[in-house]
Design brief:
The chain is of the alpha/beta class and about 260 residues long. The protein has a single domain (about 20-260), classed as 3-Layer(aba) Sandwich (Rossmann fold). It contains 10 helices and 7 strands. Strands 3-2-1-4-5-7-6 form a 7-stranded mixed beta sheet, sandwiched between helices.
Length: about 260
């Protein structure tokens, strides 16, 4: 099994993933008993932080939740399927079409197809098209040792599929630490976006939280206004996009906001 201390765990690329912010986020985690991600996404921070006494992954997207449940509960079934995957534009396009029209019902097969689509999509964007780069085709797949390490890391994690308006109150306590990574304002996301009203509702919910929270957002006037008075850091890192040939990654500015 991989050492979680020595090598970062990455399940799949994801639009809005936080692998380039990880070192900043890890240094800001406070003491806590309960750890909760209301917008779990690719779970970059969860997979790479030290385990907490209680941990919760939540996402409103049922297909993401299904993929994490498969990794936690049925890794051997995923591995068996992964062995026969080839890196193919034709397969990517066919599976993406079947996924969007909801023709695949088996949970394991659906998990495999979502994993494949995200791993072979540009920047982990479900709608971003087939990814081409300067790596060997098999490097876009997942090593067996990595999936086993992810399985081990998720074994004691609660995995939920619910809206943030219910998850945050459900797990809130003075001993809770929330890492909150919602869809950014006025940006496109893989599976769902938040309306301005929902961004405001989130800010109101966090203002009444008993626990500590750390929030990541894009630098937008609405967010500056909603979180005025909290600690705000501005960080520019490489965008979550695959580097193609000799091109440089674009920079993206994030706000890291916290109540502690």
């Amino acid at each position: 099994m991989l050492s979680l201390k020595r090598k970062r765990l990455c399940f799949f690329g994801y639009l809005g993933g936080k692998q380039f912010l990880l070192k900043h986020l890890l240094n800001l985690i406070p003491m806590h008993k309960i750890y909760c991600e209301p917008f779990g996404g690719a779970a970059t921070l969860l997979l790479n932080k030290p385990p907490s006494e209680v941990e919760v992954y939540n996402d409103k997207c049922g297909d993401l939740v299904n993929l994490f449940l498969a990794a936690r509960d049925s890794p051997e079934k995923l591995l068996e399927k992964f062995k026969f995957l080839v890196y193919s534009r034709k397969l990517h396009d066919e599976w993406r079409k079947s996924f969007k029209n909801n023709s695949i019902k088996d949970p394991i097969e659906r998990a495999v197809r979502l994993f494949y689509i995200l791993r072979t999509s540009y920047a982990g964007d479900f709608n971003g098209g087939w990814q081409i780069g300067n790596k060997k085709p098999r490097s876009f797949m997942l090593e067996e040792s990595v999936l086993k390490a992810i399985h081990e890391r998720l074994k004691n994690v609660y995995i939920e599929c619910d809206d943030f308006t219910r998850v945050i109150p459900r797990w809130d306590s003075p001993e809770t630490f929330f890492y909150v990574d919602p869809p950014y304002v006025d940006t496109e996301n893989n599976f769902y976006n938040l309306s301005y009203e929902e961004h405001c509702n989130l800010a109101n919910l966090l203002s009444h939280a008993k626990g500590k929270w750390l929030l990541t957002y894009n630098d937008h006037p609405l967010i500056r206004r909603l979180y005025k008075g909290y600690k705000i850091s501005r960080v520019s890192v490489a965008a979550n996009a695959v580097k193609v040939c000799n091109e440089k990654r674009a920079k993206l500015t994030h706000l890291i906001i916290r109540n502690y």
